[in-house]
C-alpha cells in the first residue's frame, strides 16, 4: 500500500490496469488456468481507480481464484506492453 500511495498521485486519473496470472479466475466463469486476466473481471477495461480499491478488489476476488501452474509471465508482460 505504501508504494501505491506514493505512485497514485502521479497518475492524473488514478486508474491502473490490474491483472492476475497463473490461476483459474472463477469470478470470470473460467475453468482452466489463465496466465493473464483482469482482476476486476472486465478484460475490455481492466483498470481500477485508486490503490484502496485495488486492494479491496484483490481481497474480494482472490476468494474466487484457484491458484494453478505452471505460471507463465509472457502473457502478462505482453498485456502490459499495451499500456506503454
Average of the residue pLDDT scores: 89
Shape: globular
The total domain count is 1
Number of helical elements: 3
The gyration radius over C-alpha positions equals 13 Å
Kindly name the structural category: alpha+beta
Secondary-structure topology with pairs:
Layout: H1 2-7, E1 15-17, E2 19-20, E3 23-25, E4 37-38, E5 47-49, H2 51-61, E6 65-67, H3 74-81
Antiparallel strand pairs: 1-5, 2-4, 3-6
Describe, in plain words, how this protein is organized in 3D.
By secondary structure, the protein is an alpha+beta fold. The protein has one domain. The protein has helices at 2-7, 51-61, 74-81, and strands at residues 15-17, 19-20, 23-25, 37-38, 47-49, 65-67. A two-stranded antiparallel ribbon has the order 1-5. A two-stranded antiparallel ribbon has the order 2-4. It has a two-stranded antiparallel ribbon with strand order 3-6. The radius of gyration is 13 Å and the shape is globular.
Amino acid at each position: 500500500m505504501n508504494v501505491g500511495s506514493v505512485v497514485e498521485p502521479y497518475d492524473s486519473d488514478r486508474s491502473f490496469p490490474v491483472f492476475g496470472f497463473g490461476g483459474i479466475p472463477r469470478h470470470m466463469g473460467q475453468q482452466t488456468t489463465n496466465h493473464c486476466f483482469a482482476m476486476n473481471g472486465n478484460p475490455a477495461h481492466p483498470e481500477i481507480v485508486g490503490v484502496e480499491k485495488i486492494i479491496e478488489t484483490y481481497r474480494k476476488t482472490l476468494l474466487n481464484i484457484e491458484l494453478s501452474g505452471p505460471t507463465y509471465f509472457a502473457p502478462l508482460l505482453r498485456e502490459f506492453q499495451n499500456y506503454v
